[in-house]
């Protein structure tokens, strides 16, 4: 039995099934966009910039080839001020499969725009080497913050110390305006800290370097002597000494607001050295706000 027509259904020329078919094939949003004359290439640069900030490096490069507007967004300096390199095992293979000059070209063109950079790597040596290769290319950078984050050990500790230090000092020497440095679980050493201080003593405010076995209390004391603007310090207990605690409490040195001491054994069965109570008292009483 044929059902009767509803009040708003046409008697011929399409019927309800025809209307349904058009609805499925022509999404409402698409029709609205076409009606208003808006296309993806007409998106404002501010919106494109916001979208591009969430894209991985290679996806940004692919997106920049869509149209002229997207290519302009890809090269906006604002896009490169804050950047995080994620170099886990799949990402390392992913980067190697990319055109070999892609990262080098981007770093060469945008390194002077980079200000806030972090590297997140897994435990593989391959990931750490990829991070060092990028660091060594930042010869025209002026970084304000640098973070080397190992999501699992050993990562950077697997690299030859000279290779890691060589890459890191490229940033220390060329930036000259570092305010925040996070280098936990790395083979940084006392000589490299001297390079850091020589080029960034006026700007350094935060230094986190827990589990850095090649740094001595003398290296931290060098930082305390020169970086009077340092306000936050995080280090491992094995770096502490009576002399260092007394220095950190002296008005001639830094005026810390936050001090974090990680009491973690680097090796099984490791014995912790003893700090005199008088040294702790010297640190605590003048700096009750820490």
UniProtKB/TrEMBL annotation:
InterPro entries: F-box-like_dom_sf, F-box_dom, LRR_dom_sf. Residues 1-23 are annotated as: Disordered. Residues 37-83 form the F-box domain. GO terms for biological process: positive regulation of protein ubiquitination. Gene3D superfamilies: 1.20.1280.50, Ribonuclease Inhibitor (3.80.10.10). Pfam families: F-box-like (PF12937). SMART domains: FBOX. It comes from the Eukaryota. PANTHER family: F-BOX ONLY PROTEIN 33. This is F-box/LRR-repeat protein 3.
């Amino acid at each position: 039995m044929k059902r009767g027509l509803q009040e708003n259904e046409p008697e011929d020329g399409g019927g309800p099934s025809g209307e349904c078919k058009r609805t499925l094939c022509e999404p409402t949003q698409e029709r609205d966009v076409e009606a208003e004359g808006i296309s993806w290439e007409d998106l404002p640069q501010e919106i494109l910039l916001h979208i591009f900030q969430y894209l991985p490096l290679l996806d940004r490069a692919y997106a920049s080839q869509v149209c002229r507007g997207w290519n302009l967004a890809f090269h906006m300096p604002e896009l490169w001020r804050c950047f995080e390199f994620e170099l886990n095992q799949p990402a390392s293979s992913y980067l190697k499969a990319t055109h070999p000059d892609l990262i080098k070209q981007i770093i060469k063109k945008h390194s002077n725009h980079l200000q806030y950079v972090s590297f997140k790597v897994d435990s593989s040596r391959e990931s750490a080497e990829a991070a060092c290769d990028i660091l060594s290319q930042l010869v025209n950078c002026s970084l304000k913050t640098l973070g080397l984050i190992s999501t699992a050990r050993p990562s950077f500790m697997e690299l030859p110390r000279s290779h890691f230090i060589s890459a890191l000092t490229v940033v220390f020497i060329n930036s000259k305006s570092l305010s925040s440095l996070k280098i936990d679980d790395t083979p940084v050493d006392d000589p490299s800290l001297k390079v850091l201080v020589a080029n960034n003593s006026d700007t350094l405010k935060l230094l986190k370097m827990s589990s850095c076995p090649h740094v001595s209390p003398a290296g931290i004391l060098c930082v305390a002597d020169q970086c009077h603007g340092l306000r936050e310090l995080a280090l491992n207990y094995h770096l502490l000494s009576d002399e260092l605690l007394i220095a950190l409490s002296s008005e001639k040195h830094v005026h810390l607001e936050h001090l974090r001491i990680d009491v973690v054994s680097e090796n099984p069965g490791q014995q912790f050295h003893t700090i005199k109570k008088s040294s702790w008292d010297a640190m605590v009483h003048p700096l009750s706000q820490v």
